[in-house]
Amino acid sequence: MALVSKNKMGFLTGSILIPSEIDPIYPHWERCNTLLMSWLLNSLSPSIAQSVVFFERAIDTWTDLRE
């Protein structure tokens, strides 16, 4: 529910694409992605978190967890 209400679900579904690093919106994307990574990692048990901590994008973490 929180992801939908905060308009963040697109980061996990792929509908919000990563912008170019020179795009003015990139810092905003990066901030939201970092927030999602924090939410995801803090919701996992330490043993599971260790297996996904190396991902840089929330969508990659989410995809790996779903598999």
Description:
The protein is mainly α and 67 residues long. The chain has one domain (1-16, 23-66). Helices cover 63% and strands 0% of the residues. It has five helices and no strands. It has helices at residues 2-5, 9-13, 26-42, 46-52, 58-66. The longest helix is centred in the middle third of the chain and has 17 residues, at 26-42. The protein is globular and about 35 Å long. The model has no long low-confidence stretch (mean pLDDT 93). It comes from Glycine max (Soybean). This is Retrotransposon Copia-like N-terminal domain-containing protein.
Report how far the terminal alpha carbons are from each other: 21 Å
Could you list the spans in which at least 5 consecutive residues all have pLDDT below 50? none
Strand content: under 5%
Class by helix and strand content? mainly alpha
Rg from Cα: 12 Å
Determine the fraction of residues in helical runs and give it as a percent range.
55-70%
User: What average pLDDT do the residues reach?
Assistant: 93
State the order of secondary-structure elements, H for helix, E for strand: HHHHH
Number of helices: 5
The overall strand count is 0
Q: Strand count, sense and closure of the main sheet?
A: none
Broad shape: globular
- Count of separate structural domains: 1
Protein name: Retrotransposon Copia-like N-terminal domain-containing protein
